C-alpha cells in the first residue's frame, strides 16, 4: 500500500473500524511474536548469539565456543524451532563446522567448541560467519539469520578469551553456501574482442538429491538491462567443484565497452525439469565492489587476462529461464550518442 498516495484517506478506515467486526479478518491476530514491537527488538533482528573467541599462539588456532542463542523466532507451526549453527572462517569455505541440532527450543544452549587453523597475521583479512538455521526433516532447512565478525584485532580483549553477544541479523539467503567462481577477463581494443575464460568453481551449493550438482555457466552480455548475447560452457556432471577452462568471446567495439556489463550465472542442469540457478555474479563499470574492480583492472591492462575468484550471490529475478533477459533481447549494441 502506498501511504504517499493522496487517495489514501485515514478517515475512511476509521469509519470502517467503527462498524461491526463480524466476519472481518484482523491482521493483528496473525502477527509473529518474533517481530512484534512489544519484544523490544528491531524487525531485522532474529534473536542473539552468545559466543567466545580466543587465539592459541602455540597451535596457531582460532578457538570459537558457541555458548547459546536467545529469543530465536519460531519457524515451526508448533511455535518453536529446531536450531543449529554453521560456522565459516571466510574466505576459506572448505573448513566448515556445525553444531548439533537442538529440538523444539527458541533458546538453545549449544556449549560446543570449534577450532580454525589460521596464522595470527592472517586474522585481519578473515571474517567469522555464523549462520543460524532451523532444521526441517522433510524440506529445505530455513535460514533464521546470520552473525558476521571481522576486525578481530579491534576486539577489546582479543587474543585473550573474549565473550561476545551479537544480534542475529535477518537475511533472505545464506550466500556463503552458494560457492565461488573463478574466471579471467581480457579485452583487445584493436580487435574489439572481449574474452571471458571460465576457469573453475568451488564449494557450489548442492542442488540434487545426490548431494551434488550438474553445473554449467551461462554468460549474458548486457546493455541497459537488455541481454544482447548469451553463451554457456559445457555441463560438468555430479560435482560441486567443476573445472572448465573454457573461453567465451563477445565482439564489443571500443566505443561500446563502457556501455556493457556481464551477468554470469552458475546453473544446475536438470534433465527432467527446469534448470536451476545456483548463484550469480556481475562484472562491469556499474557492478558492485569486486565486479567493478575486476572490470576496471581489465580495462587498465588491455590484452592481459586478469583472473579473480567471485562469490556467488542469490538470483532474485524471475526464474532461471529468463535470467538476464529483463526487458527483452536485442542483437546489436547501441550506437553511442554523438558528441
Summarize the structure.
With 339 residues, the chain is mainly β.
Low-confidence stretches: 1-43, 324-331, 334-339
Radius of gyration, taken over Cα atoms and rounded to an integer in Å: 24 Å
Strand order of the largest sheet: 5-2-1-8
Roughly what percent helix?
under 10%
| Structural shape | globular
Order of helices and strands: HEEEEEEEEEEEEEEEHE
Count the beta strands: 16
Instruction: Label the structural class.
Output: mainly beta
Domain C2: 45-168, 177-310
GO molecular function: calcium ion binding; calcium-dependent phospholipid binding; clathrin binding; phosphatidylserine binding; SNARE binding
Protein name: Synaptotagmin-9b
Pfam families: C2 (PF00168)
Could you describe the 3D structure shown?
The chain is mainly beta and 339 residues long. The chain has 2 helices and 16 strands. The strands form 4 sheets. A 4-stranded antiparallel beta sheet has the order 5-2-1-8, with no helix packed on it. The protein has a 4-stranded antiparallel beta sheet with strand order 4-3-6-7, with no helix packed on it. The relative contact order is 0.12.
Amino acid at each position: 500500500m502506498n501511504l504517499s498516495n493522496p487517495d489514501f484517506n485515514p478517515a475512511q478506515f476509521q469509519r470502517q473500524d467503527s462498524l461491526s467486526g463480524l466476519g472481518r479478518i484482523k491482521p493483528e491476530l496473525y502477527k509473529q511474536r518474533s517481530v512484534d514491537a512489544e519484544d523490544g527488538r528491531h524487525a531485522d533482528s532474529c534473536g542473539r548469539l552468545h559466543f567466545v573467541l580466543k587465539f592459541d599462539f602455540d597451535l596457531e588456532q582460532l578457538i570459537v565456543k558457541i555458548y547459546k542463542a536467545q529469543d530465536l523466532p519460531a519457524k515451526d507451526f508448533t511455535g518453536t524451532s529446531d536450531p543449529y549453527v554453521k560456522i565459516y572462517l571466510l574466505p576459506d569455505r572448505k573448513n566448515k563446522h556445525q553444531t548439533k541440532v537442538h529440538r523444539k527450543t527458541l533458546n538453545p544452549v549449544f556449549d560446543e567448541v570449534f577450532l580454525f587453523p589460521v596464522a595470527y597475521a592472517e586474522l585481519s583479512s578473515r571474517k567469522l560467519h555464523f549462520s543460524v538455521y532451523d532444521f526441517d526433516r522433510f524440506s529445505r532447512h530455513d535460514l533464521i539469520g546470520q552473525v558476521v565478525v571481522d576486525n578481530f584485532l579491534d576486539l577489546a580483549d582479543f587474543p585473550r578469551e573474549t565473550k561476545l553477544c551479537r544480534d542475529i541479523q535477518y537475511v533472505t539467503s545464506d550466500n556463503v553456501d552458494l560457492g565461488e567462481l573463478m574466471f579471467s577477463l581480457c579485452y583487445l581494443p584493436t580487435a574489439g574482442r572481449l574474452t571471458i575464460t571460465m576457469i573453475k568453481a568451488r564449494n557450489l551449493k548442492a542442488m540434487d538429491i545426490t548431494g551434488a550438482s550438474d553445473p554449467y555457466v551461462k554468460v549474458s552480455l548486457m546493455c541497459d538491462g537488455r541481454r544482447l548475447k548469451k553463451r554457456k560452457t559445457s555441463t560438468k556432471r555430479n560435482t560441486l567443484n567443476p573445472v572448465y577452462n573454457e573461453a567465451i568471446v563477445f565482439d564489443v567495439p571500443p566505443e561500446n565497452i563502457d556501455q556493457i556489463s556481464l551477468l554470469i550465472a552458475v546453473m544446475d542442469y536438470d534433465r527432467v525439469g527446469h534448470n536451476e540457478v545456483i548463484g550469480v555474479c556481475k562484472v562491469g563499470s556499474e557492478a558492485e565492489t569486486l565486479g567493478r574492480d575486476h572490470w576496471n583492472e581489465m580495462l587498465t591492462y588491455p590484452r592481459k587476462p586478469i583472473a579473480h575468484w567471485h562469490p556467488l550471490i542469490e538470483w532474485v529475478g524471475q526464474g532461471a529461464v529468463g535470467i538476464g533477459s529483463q526487458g527483452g533481447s536485442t542483437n546489436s549494441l547501441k550506437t553511442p550518442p554523438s558528441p
